[in-house]
Amino acid sequence: MTAIIPGPEGNLESGYASLSEDFFARVAPTPVAAPRLLRWNKALGDELGFSAAWAEGATGLGTLAGNRRLANVEPIAMAYAGHQFGNWNPSLGDGRAIQIGEVSDPTGTRRGIQLKGAGPTPFSRRGDGRAAIGPVLREYVLSEAMHAMGIPTTRALAMVTTGESVYRERAEPGAILTRVARGFVRVGTFEYFAAHRDTEAVRSLADYVIAHRYPEAASEANPYLALLNEVVSSQADLIGRWMLVGFIHGVMNTDNMSIFGETIDYGPCAFLDEYDPAKVFSSIDQNGRYAYNQQPGIGLWNLTRFAETLVPLLGDDQEAGVEIANNSLGAYAEKFQTAYYLGLCRKLGFAESNERNRQLAGELLEIMADQKADFTLTFRGLSELGKGEPSGEQGARSLFADPAAFDAWANGYGDRLNEEGLDEGIRLTRMRGVNPRFIPRNHRVQEAITALVDREDEGPLEALLTVTATPFEDPAGHTNCANYAEYAKPPQPNEVVHQTFCGT
Fold first, then answer.
1. Of the candidates 10, 270, 62, the residue with the CA atom closest to the CA atom of residue 176
2. Which of 414, 433, 444, 501 would you call most buried, defined as having the most Cβ atoms within 10 angstroms of its Cβ?
3. 370 has catalytic annotation
């Protein structure tokens, strides 16, 4: 029996649990043997009203480990379905995540708080409901790095080790991630009720999402169309942002797509090193369904599944609802392309996104793919050049196996910059604000995991969190410049990570 204790977390509310029992299962986290606070996100904690002193004390640690239950809310696991690699699964749900409540931040934005790896739920499907430290560390690092780059995402509040082993391919130390999001409603949540032809449940869910995330939709003539339009727009923008930093989600199932326009469920995710449009890291994506260059199309496929669930709410009859849904979905491609190409032109320092600038951007990507140039460092290198002139060993030019290919492109690039006439200092400053120097490179994430698991060495994790918290800074912006500069470099051949794993 878990203890029920009051504390500073008393401002948490039930939120989603106010819906009917069909939407979730009430379930308490399973206590663990010897919890230890591995990481506390002080900035996020302060934002939510949870102090470091609380997190480090018995009450806070017990809550974050699932050993103590909050006094005023009941923990829940959410029900949902989903298309996994295109295949329909009618019954999924939170198999290892338990929401312990919702809280409103100082801006009035409601946030849900989940414990991931907190033990089995009615949706665990014979799984243990636990998480190993490797996937927990990966999600903590990558989600906070995405936040630092300005990309909408779930946030990591805490990482707790359990003092127990989790058995996957081998025995690994167990851990629990406390993550925060505007909500955990997924496309698959809507699919769950639509599959049961429960239109009123779909309506209740849509009303909840509108009230807590898209309140402006409530005043529209067709609130459910307004909701669909907002979700289409937010996903187009989100996936565009992924593409601009070389992020590969890895498992874009409909149950892993948030209705709230945030990156969610960091499993076999990774960032590109060398630019390869067809790159896949996930060990389970054998056919490349979720490859880097497939993400925009999969975004539309997932949105189509979402729109299908809303059809009964959109029009007076089925035919009218389908037409309205198709019209909304038809705007996705333009919205994505607008967001993506504008961002790509900004990465190159262009003043606007026009046909000539987009052409130059496309030519650069083709050369990068052919020459296997590092994605992040190519764009960062260009933000440190004057007028596109080739530079020395540390510049973009050095990243190309055939520098002459880069030179030919750079000549046209420099001419175009001259034509636009933007002040060079202003241009380079803007470029450095959108082209990160530091990303959580796959080999560095693996290094941090190995050091922690094999040697209980937190040093690589600390260094990785430090540099990715300020991704646009030069190494000189960090205290230990010599060490941190290494975190900007791509892996050596023996360090390359070819596959990533979800950890379930």
1. 62
2. 444
3. no
For residue 51, pLDDT beyond 50:
yes
Give 117-120 contacts, CB < 8 A, sequence gap 24+. Answer: 117/162, 117/174, 117/175, 117/176, 117/177, 118/29, 118/30, 118/66, 118/176, 119/29, 119/30, 119/66, 120/30, 120/95, 120/96
Mean pLDDT, residues 232-245: 98
Cα(335)–Cα(233) distance, integer angstroms: 7
366 vs 192: CA distance, rounded Å: 41
With beta carbons less than 8 A apart as the criterion, state whether 274 and 373 touch.
yes
Alpha-carbon span 336 to 241, nearest angstrom: 9
For residues 307-315, average pLDDT: 97
- In the predicted structure, residue 366 carries a pLDDT above the cut 50: yes
Half-sphere exposure of 77 (CA within 13 A, CB side): 22
Contacts of 88 (CB under 8 A, 6+ apart): 81
Q: For the CA atoms of the chain, what is the radius of gyration? A: 23
Mean pLDDT of the chain: 92
Contact 199, 279 (CB under 8 A): no
Task: Fill in the amino acid letter for 11.
Answer: N
Q: What is the chain's length?
A: 504
Q: Which residues contact 376 (CB under 8 A, 6 or more apart)?
A: 245, 246, 271, 272, 273, 435, 436, 437, 439
Whether 248 and 280 have beta carbons less than 8 Å apart is answered as yes
Per DSSP, what are the bridge partners of residue 103? 111
| Distance from C-alpha of 69 to C-alpha of 115, rounded to nearest angstrom | 12
Q: Which stretch of 48-62, 171-185, 376-390, 430-444 has the lowest confidence by average pLDDT? A: 376-390
CB atoms within 10 A of CB 381: 21
Burial class (CB in 10 A: 0-12, 13-18, 19+), 247: buried
The string of pLDDT tens digits covering residues 256-286 is 999 999 999 998 999 999 999 999 999 899 8
Beta partners for 84? Answer: 87
CB atoms within 10 A of CB 127: 12
Tell me the C-alpha distance between 289 and 208, whole Å: 32
Give me the catalytic one of 237, 255, 265, 374. 255
- Domain positions in the chain are 3-181, 187-272+289-339, 348-432, 442-495
10 Å Cβ neighbour count for 177? 29
DSSP-derived secondary structure for 107-149: TS-EEEEEEETB---TTSTT---BEEHHHHHHHHHHHHHHHHT
The percentage of residues in the chain with a pLDDT greater than 90, rounded to a whole number, is: 83
Sign, Cα dihedral of 497, 446, 132, 289: negative
Q: How many CB atoms lie within 10 A of CB 23?
A: 21
Residue 27 burial class via C-beta count within 10 angstroms: exposed 0-12, middle 13-18, buried 19 and up = buried
